[in-house]
Amino acid sequence: MYLHTEQRQQQGLSPRLQQAVRLLQLSSLDFAHEVQAAVDSNPFLDTVDDEPPEDAAAAAPGVATPDALHTSTLDAPTVPLAADDDGSDGDGGDDNRDSWQTAGPSDTPRSDDLDGSPMNRVAAETSLTEYLLRQLHVLQIPARDMLMAEAIVESLDDDGYLRLEDLSELIPVIGLDPVASLPELQIALKRVQSLEPAGVGARSVVECLLLQLDGVEDRDERELMRRLVSEKLESLAHKDAATLAKQLGRPVEAVAAACARIRRLDPRPGWRFGSADIRYITPDVIVKKVRNTWTVSLNPAIVPKVRLHRVYAEMFQRHQQAHHPELASQLREARWTLRNVEQRFATILGVAQAIVKRQHHFFDYGPLAMKPMGLKEIAEEVGVHESTVSRVTNNKYMATPSGVFEFKYFFSRAMTATSGTAFSGTAIRGLIKDMIENEKPDNPLSDAEITRQLAQQGFVVARRTVTKYRHLLKVDAVERRRNGA
């Protein structure tokens, strides 16, 4: 054991710059909350309620107008902040940047209006899980059986199905002592399947429909419907009652009535409860074509309307700052917040501008024209570090005539076709999407078949890559598409 000393130089980020880097990767909603929290806690920050006249904003000294950042063509210069470059914590040279305003409306509700908001009086919807658990908790069953039934309920998907290959997969999840047995789980499943709505807890479409047949009072009709569902479910789509009647040896009228009643059954009982979790996205930038040129502009709705409270700042500067170190610190924080707002949106706009410039064929012709692109290319174009581009592309969205896309959507590694030309993974996803949309409903394409058809077009892609892209497109496997599940 021995002691020794050595000198070493390494690059580090100041606490303020670390804060700027953290704010850069936040989504627009989270960033707005951060800025609002700073406004609430700092007396030197103020929100802008009304948009001043254009001439007044231009004439007012020390007021920075955002027009240069809000709209930009692809050839316009940008001055984004390199978040990984070192900076100073002082206030020198930035005292004139005391306001950041937007032309967008301010629709943030006041805190004293929250109680009177109509949204607070909207009844909450009951989810399928909540509805089933309420029914279970009414039953007088042992605690062990209740835990197994609750585990099954919580494993159901939005359709009300139990998508498990084997019921024994729940055994380690429940964690009972002694360990739950498969017969016990089967009894618990039967108990869940007896709850309302009828058909819940099924493991297939056939089982879901069969569970709903218990409500048919007529025994003969119920048995006929059971045979149709179990043996002739695929034939029901053809609506050929005569052929089905001949195959089953039953009257045509009875078969037609049974088929009509089967079609009124609910193959997705879970859809009756709750609503889909729809998440709305507010784009950070807007892309549109003006005079045959793609232009990029900031979305005014996401830019906080915040400025330095000049009255308080001037009053503080006229008095002894040395006697009020806390106020002096808050004034520095206020100015730093305004710089963060400006630098954040300048960087976002610069990165978006570079993306649109390199991917203009995508905006003209669609996903098949997407070029391979990496973070390094955009970083060199904008003049920032790759890690800055990575942070900017996180939770940032671009509104285009083709839809709203996350910045990350435009980045993909280069893949080489048999002809030697490079193509992107996004283009392959577009091809796979077109193939699946145009497939025959009775003969959907498997991942292996999609791989073979891509190879015929010169795109050599592994089958597992096709499977990954299909999952990204949120498309079910071929078996489920064939069964209509």
Task: Report a brief summary of the structure.
The chain has 21 helices and ten strands.
Please, could you describe this protein's structure?
It contains 21 helices and ten strands. With 485 residues, the chain is α+β, with helices and mostly antiparallel strands. The chain folds into three domains: 15-106 and 282-403, no CATH class; 128-272, no CATH class; 414-483, Homeodomain-like (Arc Repressor Mutant, subunit A). The strands form three sheets. Strands 2-5-4-7-8 form a five-stranded mixed β-sheet. A hairpin with a 2-residue loop joins β7 and β8 (403-406). α10 (219-231) packs across α12 and α14 (325-358) crosses α16. The radius of gyration is 31 Å and the shape is extended. It starts with 14 loop residues before the first helix and ends with a helix. The model is unreliable at 52-114 (pLDDT under 50).
